[in-house]
Amino acid sequence: MNSLVNRLKDGKVLVSDGAWGTFLHNRGLKPGECPELWNVTHRDDVLAIAQSYIDAGANMILTNSFGGSPIKLDHFGLKDRAYELNQVAAEISRQAAGDDHFVLGDIGPTGAMLMMGQVSEQEMYDGFRIQSEALQKGGSDAICIETMAAIDEGVLAVRAAKESTDLEVICSFTFEKTSQGDFRTMMGVSPFEMVKAIKDAGADIIGTNCGNGFEQMIPIVKEIRKADAEMPILVHANAGVPLVQEGETIFPETPELMASRVQELINCGANIIGGCCGTTPDHIKALAKEIKKY
Amino acid sequence: MSEIVQKIAYCIERGKVNKTSPFPNDMKDELGADELAKQAIEEGVGPDVILEACNDGMQKVGDKFGRNEVFVPELLMAAKAMNAVMEHLKPFFAAGNIKVKGKFVLGTVAGDLHDIGKNLVSMVVEGNGWQVIDLGVDVKTEKFINAIKENPGCAVGLSALLTTTMTNMEKTVSAIKEECPDVKIIVGGAPVTMDAAKKMGADGYSPDPQGAVSFLSKAVAAG
Q1: Residue B223 pLDDT greater than 60, yes or no
Q2: Per the CB < 8 Å rule, is A32 touching B193?
Q3: For the segment B88-111, what is each residue's pLDDT rounded down to a tens digit?
Q4: B166 interfacial to chain A (CB closer than 8 Å)
Q5: In chain A, what residues touch B200 (CB-CB under 8 Å)?
Q6: Is the CB of residue A233 less than 8 Å from the CB of residue A207?
Q7: B interface test, pick of A71, A118, A241, A244 with most B CB neighbours within 10 Å
Q8: Identity of the residue in B113, B116, B171 whose CB atom sits nearest the CB atom of A75
Q9: What's the pTM value of the predicted model, to 2 decimals?
Q10: Is A250 near chain B, with CB under 8 Å?
Q11: A274 backbone dihedrals φ, ψ, rounded to 5°
Q12: Average pLDDT, chain B
């Protein structure tokens, strides 16, 4: 597989995939079940999700390993199976992606905070290292660290991925708009601070994911672009803020609404565009149709 | 408020735990909440006055958090400073010299493993003088109901961070209301909005921990 960064150098904008978590729940994942265990127990369901995004026109797909950190898996008594579950996650996505699409080995936050002394730096680093190695072994083309909020954890994850694999590393943070009108993570990190720290740690692509919908990604991408003129930017947006309707969680942003914002997002500097919570293959299909024009 | 009590409140507001704590930068090498609380008790300051200082400090940092002037790290450090003071007050609670305002049963709903938001609420509410019964993460409905029955007169807080667990939150609210109709429930967490809270049948919603304190004072303390 070619380098993702090289593919983007030609000025091409690439399409990423949509939600996995909400998709798994739709396919029957029960609350309290471990999503990553499904890689082994419900391989066909996980493969179907991966395949549906390839079929929708995504150039790349993630892996079902967001919560695959040994620290998180410990809650399910699956800490010792971290390597296996991450490797299989990558194998499944590789199977769907074939040779002509990228597989991004997905790594989410551990849920533990270094500053509170819940885990040591070494323990956190080792967890990210195990995930990265397993995701490479399973056939990932790059590592995608996402939904980060704390600088120290994001930096450790990027370092672990760079030092334990020879893959390109993407790192994306989740920002919210403050009442002052600027953007910060829940740990108070601004896009500017994030870009500097994550670039220094060795990331190849920087990004923003989750959040409050497509519209709000535009000012965040502008901020990131202001902080760095060169680095490719990935955007994985939620389909808006979820609403509860008749006992169901509904994401309000339609595929058409997302697609209508693509041009502006690209103009601001986005290089890879995909979805996060609540986005479906239909959203990705609409994005892909729009992005093909560029 | 005497000078030492004011200092305790300020240490909590700023998250200055003790003398050796490097945070915050501008208070390096100064005495922290831990040393000052010990000193205040030795000087004969009433435990109720010290508790009041805790409330005051947590209120201030909680308000700043609500205005996005400080973020999770600052709030966590403030809670840590408050806990240091609470350690010194424990014997007075045990002896009945000071009392909690009421009980608050708190947990993250089934299927959700996130405890950051819930922990922040727990710390701020405790700092305001409530007894918090923290049921942890991924809490099944039955566990909430058992805890409510074991703690008559308590209020309940439900947290969810995942968009996918909001439906569980709704189910838990309905089940609690059916089993214990008088109990007051507040919900919160990243995907939750005032509108969603109302539709679920919760009594309150807050986007930040300080809002939970206001809810408890109004809805619960007032009866």
Answers
A1: no
A2: no
A3: 999 998 899 998 899 999 999 876
A4: yes
A5: 244
A6: yes
A7: A244
A8: B113
A9: 0.88
A10: no
A11: -155, -165
A12: 91
Which has the closest alpha carbon to B123: B197, B64, B72?
B72
Across residues B50-61, what is the average pLDDT?
92
Q: Does B70 touch chain A (CB under 8 A)?
A: yes
Contacts of B19 (CB under 8 A, 6+ apart): B29, B30, B31, B32, B34, B35
ipTM tops the 0.85 cut: no
CA–CA distance, A14 with A232 (Å, rounded to integer): 11
Rounded distance between C-alpha atoms, residue B78 and residue B62, angstroms: 9
Note whether B72 contacts A: Cβ–Cβ < 8 A.
yes
Query: Which residue bears the tokens 């990228």?
Result: A102
**pLDDT per residue as tens digits for the range B63-90:** 999 899 999 889 989 999 999 999 999 9
pLDDT value at A196 more than 70:
yes
* Chain A CB contacts of B195 below 8 Å: 243
What are the residues whose beta carbons fall under 8 Å from the beta carbon of A84, sequence distance 6 or more? A40, A134
| Cβ–Cβ gap B76/A244 under 8 Å | no
Query: Rounded CA gap, B109 and B158, in Å?
Result: 6
Query: Cβ separation of A31 and B73 shorter than 8 Å?
Result: no
Contact status of B164 with chain A (Cβ, < 8 Å): yes
Q: Which of A3-7, A77-81, A245-249, B18-22 is predicted with the least confidence, judged by mean pLDDT?
A: A245-249
Q: Are B53 and B9 in contact (CB under 8 A)?
A: yes
**How many percent of chain B have pLDDT more than 90?**
65
Helix (H, G, I), strand (E, B) or coil at A70: helix
Residue that the structure tokens 């993460």 belong to: B137
